[in-house]
Structures are given as C-alpha cells and as structure tokens.
Amino acid sequence: MSLSTDPWEGRLSEHLDGTLSAEERSLLDAHLVTCGECRATRAELEQIVARARALPERAPGTDLWPGIEARVAALAQQPFSAIRARRPAAVRRGITLSWPQLVAAGLLLVVLSGGGAWFASRGPRLAGRATQPAQTSGGTNYAAAHQDADPEYAAQVADLEKALAERREQLDPSTVKTIEANLKIIDLATTQARQALAADPANPYLKEYLSKSMRRKVELLKQATEFASTR
Amino acid sequence: MDPVCPDATLLSPPPAVAAGPSSWKADAADASRAAGGDFRAFERLYRAHVNRVHALARRMLNPDEAAEATQDVFVRAWQKIGSYRGEAAFGTWLHRLAVNVLLGRRQVLKLERERHLEDDSALETIPARVARTSDLSMDFEAALERLPAGARQVFVLHDVEGYRHEEIAQFLGVTTGTTKAQLHRARMLLRGHLLA
Prior knowledge:
The structure holds two protein chains of two kinds. By secondary structure, chain A is an all-alpha fold.
C-alpha cells in the first residue's frame, strides 16, 4: 500500500485505534521497541488524529435558511414549483423566490399544516368541507367573509387591502398571484374555523386557531403592502 | 374577540444567528413542533445545527458543493422529522441523516464505487520517509481537500466525526477491511501533505 517495505507500517493505524487482535498488538508493541521509524510514524499519525478531532465547526458563508424555507414551501405547494421553474437557471441556484413569495410560502405552510391538524381533530365530517370552495367574494375583497364577525378586524383588513390594491402595479404578477392564493387559503381556514366554532363555541383550540388565521392575514397584508411600498 | 391574540408561531423571537450547543430536551421539543408544521421551531433547529452539518458537507464533498448540500440535508430533515422519536439526541439523528444525504449525492453522480476502487497511485506521491518535524503547519482543511474521495470520506467519518468502522462500512456499503485500509491511507496521505 505504501512505498515502505516495513510490513508493520500498514498496521499502525489499527494499533493506534486499538483494533488489532491481542496477539497482533503484542507483536507490534515488540516491533515498536526496536523500530524508530515506525515509532515516529505512529506518533505523527497520532498527531493527525488529534488535529482531526479538534477541527472546529464551520459556518456557511451566507445564511442558507431562506433557500431551505423556499424549497420546503415548494414541496408543499405546486404553484411555487411552477414559479421556480420559470425563473432563469442562474437565479434558481440561489434564493429562488422573491421576498414576499418567501413570506407567503412560510405562512402558507403554517396555515396548511395547522389546518391539517385541525381537520384531523375534527374528523371526516369537517374534513369533507375542506374541499368546498371558500364562500368569499373572490378577487381582492378578502374582508367580505368576516365583516359581520368583527368590525374592527374587518376595517383593519379593508384598509390594508386598499393600500395593497393601490400598490398592486408595483408588484410582479406572479407575486400578486401568490399573495392572493395565500390570502384565499387563510380565508378558507378562517371561514371553516368560524363554522366549527358555531357548532362548538367553547372549544379553545378552535378559538386559538381562528385568531391565528386572522392574525396571519393581517401580517401577510402588512408585509405585502410594505414590500410593495419599497418597489 | 381580540383578533391579535398571542400567537407563539408569529410572535416568538427569531432564533439567535450563532446558537450555542443545543440541549437534547429543547431540540426534541422543537423537533416535535416542527413535525407539527412549526416553521419557527424548525428554523431554531437549523440555527443550532447548521454549522456542524455544513462542516461535514464541506469536508466530505468540497467547499463549492457544501452550501447546496447543506440545504439538501435540512430539506430532507424537514421531510423526515416525523420519524425522529427523541430516543437519541436530535443532533445525532440529524448527523446520521446528513451523512446519508451527502453520500447519496455522490451515488447520484455514480462516483462512489469508482472512487473506492481507485488504485493506490495517489500513495506514490507520498515520500516513503519524510523529513520529520513536529510542526504540522499546512492548513489541515486544505490538506483534507486533497485526499481522494474514498479515503477522505472514511477519514472524516472516523477521525473527525467519530463513527466506528462498522458504521462507516454500513454507510458506504463496503467491508470494515476496506474502511480500515482507507483510513490508514488517508492518515498517511495527510501526514505526507502536512510534513512535505
């Protein structure tokens, strides 16, 4: 294996690691007493091992999280994959989604996963409703489904939607499409949470889930509006 | 109803960029949350373990591939996190998964077997006896990158990461005789590089 003619040299690593049989170890121990070169080589190998064990962790040069987040979101939602596929290859190798798409993707994933847990807890009766279209007015008037339930919230959402609509032209069409798709999903989750709460008003999980959905919508609208303002 | 109620997912502070050693319990709790879809919890796990995973990727592959490979590892971890039961430290689970993902990249490229079957010509570049000095001055990482892939993988897994030969042989689909030979080969090559 090496240019050395010493038959024991090839066993020095095993001697160092303690993986030789007792008999082999005794023989090599005896050889080391008389062979200075093998003793020196073994000592150097020991240094190599010590340095290897002391190697530090190494941080990546850039934060890899945005790319990971985008890829995980793409796994959960086909349209994200489609958006990714349309982008130039050079862009695909880095962060592949725009900032609002990343935000929307993250929110979408949370909503989908939370919704999944909720449907699982509610059984097939409610799960069946998940396949029904959201009873909203469509387009960009996302507050319509909730105006009757909480006027303050509806007003806040309406203001944000209006601000976003005024800045809509500053956004890439695919970004607008993604934001709208996510808003519809949040609306669907909110509507179904309201329906479930009507049947089970004291359920704390449903209350919390509804509040989360509503808050997510406000957050998404705020982030999208802020982003559009910077364009 | 107040629409702005406490929401752990949205309101929890962002994880520290340079997280310290993560505890088993905290990681297990975050893994459980992540398995339920909590992106923030998964991000905390990422922050806590990314440096170790990235170091492994860099050493087993090369610096150019390390970032993308690290992303692959965490995407796979997200997909598989439901299988983590908390029976071992999350870092251990993640690390084993990382090794499989990183080795898988090579398998996809159909390089694995060729590199393990490569001849010993590289060893001929090592002097049979080199000038002895206690100063291993050459950058160890740079020397590591110069190793043939097969020897490098075994060396990283055994000497850097602490896996046993039986585990490495299982990862690579080879015998422990092969891993022992590759390990010695790697050490001797490093010795030659570092002392030349």
